[in-house]
Design a protein that fits this description.
- It is built from twelve helices and no strands.
- The chain is an all-alpha fold.
- Helix 2 crosses helix 11 and helix 10 runs antiparallel to helix 11.
């Protein structure tokens, strides 16, 4: 526990130094506050962004409704909804296809050329088509997020299945395992670390794509709020929104890391 807190403290050193430099630069008046506001101005704006909106009447709302009436909370919920739905769609399509392409040379030969052509195309390039196909709102955003999550999960799943140690496969065959048993009991468990790595990368990519898609296709969410703040030159709100995105992304990554460690306890035990 002491080592963990020491690591956390070490990780806070660089951000603290950067904030101190930021404060010094703004306090000395070396930059225009409209371009780079002071740290405390950003904190104040972030608190205003997170607080319940005055337009709501707390007397006519439930306690839970009042709690979730803050603009930041509603934008975060909107962004997370799109991330989760888009990721589930993208990963749900990528996982079975990746398993098939990894386990079957014929499926790999059929599908790999198409996947390698589509994979380098960034999700942002699909924005015009997504709007033409789905209009505005959540559907085009979810479509873009699904594309962003699809390929990391797909490629890691293929790599995991195709890079199973041959000694495991030979041992299973010597014990009389058929192809189905070999896949379910040997290849799939051995590929789990790769698959989970792809899931972690995919959900991170999905979160990046949602910010871009919200600047184009929807009228709420963290990305939309940053674009709105830019239109009014609210640089403090822009930075507050960026910090919110960073904190949310950190929370997602930590959660995925804990999930990976929990699911791969057997794998790490073998390594140690």
């Amino acid at each position: 526990m002491k080592l963990k807190w020491r690591e956390i403290g070490a990780g806070l050193v660089v951000p603290a130094v950067l904030i101190a430099i930021w404060h010094t630069v703004t306090a000395m008046g070396w930059v225009n506050p409209q371009v780079l506001p002071a740290p405390w101005a950003v904190v104040r704006k972030w608190c205003e962004y997170a607080s319940p909106m005055e337009a709501f009447d707390p007397a006519g709302m439930t306690r839970l409704g009042w709690l979730f009436s803050g603009e930041l909370i509603r934008d975060t919920i909107g962004s997370m909804y799109r991330v989760l739905v888009g990721f589930v769609v993208g990963a749900g399509l990528a996982l079975p296809l990746g398993l098939a392409m990894g386990a079957s040379q014929r499926a790999y030969a059929w599908m790999n050329p198409l996947m390698q052509v589509l994979r380098p195309i960034p999700p942002i390039a699909y924005i015009p088509l997504s709007i033409l196909w789905f209009g505005l709102g959540n559907p085009p955003a979810i479509f873009l997020i699904a594309i962003g999550a699809f390929f990391p999960v797909l490629m890691n799943t293929i790599a995991g299945v195709r890079h199973v140690d041959g000694i495991y496969i030979r041992a299973a065959r010597n014990l009389g395992a058929n192809q189905t048993t070999l896949f379910v009991r040997v290849m799939l468990p051995a590929a789990v670390p790769y698959i989970l790595s792809g899931v972690r990368i995919g959900i991170g990519t999905a979160f990046i794509v949602v910010i871009v898609s919200e600047m184009i296709a929807v009228n709420n969410g963290l990305g939309f709020r940053i674009l709105e703040a830019r239109e009014y030159f609210w640089s403090d709100k822009i930075i507050a929104g960026m910090i919110s995105i960073g904190m949310l992304g950190l929370a997602i990554d930590l959660a995925m890391n804990k999930l990976n460690n929990h699911l791969l306890r057997w794998h790490r035990g073998l390594e140690n």
